[in-house]
Amino acid sequence: MRGDLVRKLAARCLSTGLAVLAFVVLALTGATDWGLALAVAALAAAAVEQRIRPGADLVAETALVAAAVLVGYSRRLDDGLDPALVATALVLLGLVLLVGPLRTAGNLEIRAANLLVRSWTPLVADQLGTALLGLLAAVALAAALVLPAVVALVASLLLGVGAGAVALDLARRRFRPATGGGAVARALRRHEPEFLLYFSAPPGSEYQVTMWLPYLERIGRPFVVLVREPEFLAPIAAATDAPVVYCPTLRAMDEALVPSLRAAFYVNHGAKNSHCIRFTQLTHVQLHHGDSDKAPSANPVSGIFDRIFVAGPAAIERYARAGVRIPAEKFVVVGRPQVESIEVRPEPVRGLAHPTVLYTPTWTGHHADADYCSLPVAEKLLRRLLERGATVILRAHPYTAQNPASARQLGRLTELLVADRARTGRQHIVGAAARELSLTECVNRSDALVSDVSGVISDYLYSGKPYAVTDMGDEGDRFVRRFPLAGAGYVLRRDMSNTDEVLTALLDTDPAAEARWATRRHYLGDFPAETYAEAFLTAARRELAPERTVAAPAGV
After folding, report:
1. What is the arrangement of strands in the sheet containing 331-333, beginning at the earlier edge strand?
2. Are 166 and 102 in contact (CB under 8 A)?
3. Where do transmembrane segments lie in this chain (predicted)?
């Protein structure tokens, strides 16, 4: 999160600084060419800032750059007051003032992908800011080439006409909405979805949805994915053929929740989940996006859902252990369908000369009490693994790069493994190559796991292979009581003082092999391997049964 803040601040300083510098050079000096070059650089910086900060207000920067470019243009023409240049200035001023409000209005409109519907206005409104930056760059180029001012005027008018058309259509949508909803609502009624997957989360969290999409598709009923942040529309739509709808407002949700819907599935405890929970005609089902002994896995907010699908009895006990009281009838044990493709090793393999070890450090979390990240102390661990002849798959949590310190630590570990690969030829998998592999592929390629407290351990447990867990709170005996899954593995102390002892148990003797099978049933359910995912599919179809009672929608 701190890394995001640094990037945003740097982008803001760069775009603003270059805009001011371009204006000062063009308005107060005779260095017209240098000033125009700085103006183009400021526009490029503003475009970068738009990508880093999608909601950035760039009115001040674009106004400064526009004024600077027009001053430079006038100086290059050097033939007095040019009416075409004055008209260009007026059009540009209007565009600078309108682009932000139009983008905001466009972002309040419902949008869809994988649905036979045309909704061009919000998309165009969202790109008007980029179009304005391109127009200003073109005007700067026209000034540098000393083209007639009418060229800049024509280009400005073309964009102005487009912006005007967008403004009129958005006004029509707002003040004269179509009866029965807009085009997206009509298309959804034709699609007749029986359930929806509701999703709201910070950027980079789409993996929480994509892990469930194949199983939702296997339910065999039409459904829709409803997202609340625009950046998720494209990546999630690329991962499924089901319609994906972006609903920025409660009014848009009212439009998207068509009468055919019977259930809503959720994959996290996002604050905006309450916006959908209010629809009491639906059965609300929490799926989670992993099963772990982390504190968030026993979130009291789970109690607001009608059903809580859990992997095994251990998840139900986790809530009780945390003092969270939820009626037993809300829980449904469905296994963890994502593990069905994990290869199971029924017999322990001891004393491997050249094992492959999967290391999955988690991120630092939002709060100190949820920081289970082992990256600060991992170098000693990796060096010991290399001394034992291990090949390492280093697969860090997707959020790792958001913390600059964690990113640097991960970078050092990556350099260590790359250097060893060059020296020994062992094919360590790091960086982009590790992220390109699915977790299942990483599990299947490995002989053992070293992980922080996270949902990765539950998934790995299905394989029957050994694992070690890092005790980053230095809790000693209390650690296993807080995180029972660690009891079927081997616990690494924070100071890594027992690294050799743990690696011997993990890779050579494996004394916990028998205990892991009992833990596996407790955490992941006791379902046949050949039909493991059917438990989830059957439970999900049961929630879609038409005989379920239907209540009236709840008020806001």
Report:
1. 111-113, 244-246, 223-227, 195-199, 263-266, 283-286, 307-310, 331-333
2. yes
3. 84-102, 123-143, 149-168
- Pair 100, 192 in one domain: no
Three-state secondary structure string covering 305-374:
CCEEEECCHHHHHHHHHCCCCCCHHHEEECCCHHHCCCCCCCCCCCCCCCCEEEEECCCCCCCHHHCCCC
CA distance 126 to 105: 9
The one-letter amino acid code at 319 reads: Y
Using CA atoms in the order 294, 300, 304, 310, what is the torsion angle rounded to 10 degrees? 30
Domain identity same for 198 and 307: yes
Predicted confidence (pLDDT) per residue in 423-473, tens digit: 999 999 998 899 889 999 999 999 999 999 888 999 999 999 999 999 988
Mean pLDDT (the chain) is: 89
pTM: 0.77
Judge contact between 174 and 110, C-beta under 8 A. no
Do 33 and 158 share a structural domain? yes
Write down the pLDDT at residue 52: 81
Note down the domain range covering 197.
183-339
What pLDDT is stored for residue 520 in this prediction? 92
CATH number of 245's domain? 3.40.50.11720
| Domain count along the chain | 3
- In this structure, the answer to whether residues 311 and 272 fall within a common structural domain is yes
Give the chain's residues under pLDDT 50: 1, 549-556
Domain identity same for 23 and 153: yes
Q: Is residue 387 part of a domain?
A: yes
Whether 498 is in a domain gets the answer yes
